[in-house]
Amino acid sequence: MDEKITAEILTRISGVNPRKCMRCGKCSGTCPAYDAMEYHPHQFVAMVESGNISPLLHSPSLFLCLSCFACVDRCPRNVEPAKLVEAVRLAVIRQQGGNHLKPERIPEIVAEEMPDPELPQQAVVTAFRKYAK
Fold this sequence. Notes:
iron-sulfur cluster binding, metal-binding, 9 helices, about 55% helix, mainly alpha, 4Fe-4S dicluster domain-containing protein
């Protein structure tokens, strides 16, 4: 793992300011995955704010979030906890190198996904944007 994931990196990726959170718990109260999650939406926000990122990186809660944005709708301060969870998830995937597409794999993927020989250029550009960051 090359780069240490910090609160600054996560706030930059997500665009969320965790300091706005007043810990009311409304986001967690509306979360449909609450019972399955080890860390709830308000805890994600609090842990990022405090810089306690390490437990989040290895938590199964990271992939149990449904990204339904119910927590975002419910937050009275517009903190957007789901975006923060998604940022942690993306940072972990990037650290593991799981989001990089190698050019030599494109023909194979294209053949699987789009059997039509007239591949729209947009699909190739989208794949590079998704997998090459």
